[in-house]
User: Which sequence fits this backbone?
C-alpha cells in the first residue's frame, strides 16, 4: 500500500505544471487594476478639492462643479446649492464604492485564482478574505454592483424632473435586473453549498 504522504509529494508533470503556472498570466491584469485604483484616488481628490474650493468662493472650482453636475439638454445650475452639493457628494461616494469593488476584485481574485497571500496572522486582514472563494467573491461583487447602481439611481431621482418617464423606468429596470441577478447568484451558490436532500426512495439518494 502506497504512503499517502509519498503520493502527495509526487512531482507534477511538465504539461500539468505549465497549465497550473499559467495562472500567473493574470498578475498583469491585477497590477493594471491597481493602476486604475490610483486613477480613481486622483479623481476623488480633484473632485473633493473643487467642491471645497467652490464652497470657499473659488470661481474656477465652482465652474468645474457646475459643469460636472449639469445634465445634457437641461438648464445648467448657476450656483452651489444643497442639491448641487448632494450630487457631488454622491459622485464621490460612487468613486469610493467602485474603488471598494476594485479592491475586492484585486485582493479576492488574486487570493482565489493566483496565489495565497498568507494574511491569516496580519492584523489588517479583511474579515471577508478569511473565507473567500469563487462563489463568495461572485456574491460580493454582485452586491457591490447593486450598491453602485443604487447611487446612480439616486442621482437620477434627485433630478427626476429633468428626465423623461422612459429614462426613469429604464434605469429602475436595470437596477432591478442587477438585484434579481444577485439574488439568483446567491441562491445558486446556496444550493451548491447545501444540496437539497433527496427522499429515501429516490434513486439519487445516498445508500
Assistant:
Amino acid at each position: 500500500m502506497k504512503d499517502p504522504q509519498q503520493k502527495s509529494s509526487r512531482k507534477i508533470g511538465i504539461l500539468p505544471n505549465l497549465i497550473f503556472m499559467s495562472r500567473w498570466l493574470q498578475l498583469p491584469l491585477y497590477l493594471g487594476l491597481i493602476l486604475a485604483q490610483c486613477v480613481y484616488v486622483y479623481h476623488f481628490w480633484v473632485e473633493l478639492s473643487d467642491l471645497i474650493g467652490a464652497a470657499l468662493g473659488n470661481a474656477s472650482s465652482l465652474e468645474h462643479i457646475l459643469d460636472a453636475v449639469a445634465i445634457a439638454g437641461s438648464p445648467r445650475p448657476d450656483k452651489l446649492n444643497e442639491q448641487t452639493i448632494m450630487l457631488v457628494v454622491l459622485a464621490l461616494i460612487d468613486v469610493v464604492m467602485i474603488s471598494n469593488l476594485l479592491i475586492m476584485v484585486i485582493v479576492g481574485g488574486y487570493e482565489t485564482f493566483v496565489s495565497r497571500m498568507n494574511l491569516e496572522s496580519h492584523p489588517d486582514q479583511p474579515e471577508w478574505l478569511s473565507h473567500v472563494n469563487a462563489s463568495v467573491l461572485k456574491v460580493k461583487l454582485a452586491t457591490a454592483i447593486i450598491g453602485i447602481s443604487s447611487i446612480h439611481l439616486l442621482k437620477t431621482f434627485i433630478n427626476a424632473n429633468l428626465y423623461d418617464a422612459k429614462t426613469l423606468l429604464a434605469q429602475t429596470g436595470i437596477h432591478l435586473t442587477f438585484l434579481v441577478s444577485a439574488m439568483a447568484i446567491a441562491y445558486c451558490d446556496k444550493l451548491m453549498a447545501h444540496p437539497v436532500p433527496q427522499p429515501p426512495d429516490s434513486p439519487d439518494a445516498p445508500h
